Amino acid sequence: MLDNIKVENVLFLDIETVPGAESYALLDPAMQALWDRKSLQFRSSDQTATDVFQRAGIYSEFGKIICISVGLIKEKNPFSLRLKSFYGNEEKTLLTEFAAMLSKFSKNNKEALLCAHNGKEFDYPYIARRMIINGVVIPDLLDNAGKKPWEIKLLDTMDLWKFGDYKNYTSLNLLTSILGIPTPKDDIDGSMVAGIYYEENDIERIVRYCEKDVLAIVQVLLRFMSLPAVSEEKIESVTFL
User: What does pTM read for this prediction?
Assistant: First the structure.
């Protein structure tokens, strides 16, 4: 499959999400009741719905997207990578801007593909669901409803790594480590994003973290394709892709 892919046709992405409210107490009563019921699926008998509310961000019904970072390889010999992020407090705005970019990208490129790590289980459905919630039209490239398997243009580096083995989850950090792929080190991890967003109000720090994950996904796919990695000096953050 990868032999037929040109990396210049691939848009790499990663998202960062947080609970839709800063705390359980700030949810309206109806959503509190729904979270009570939802959290019964994973909380222990000695935990309350409040205790596990920090996990709300991973569920699209109770969370929201605060950043979508994307990357596009623009040149060969050597490869260069352009990074762009859609972020902010207004989820509908960033989703609308991302959808417009995605529609333009696929319109100008009939071989366009998306690539994320664990994208099929998380990023792609999360973005699509939040678009529906916010009244944003889902771009065709992202919308797989009613499509035949060969019509779906969604790559997933975790899915590729499984080689048909669906028994376990392999994190992006683990995959880059075992493949010996150098990635920029950061001072945060995904579990800290909500606190940095709500308590520190430092969304720029989250954006940098998200973009570094996009870079890691790029390097992993290039390794899978037996292609050279993108060097640090060939990476830039841009306003327009």
Answer: 0.95
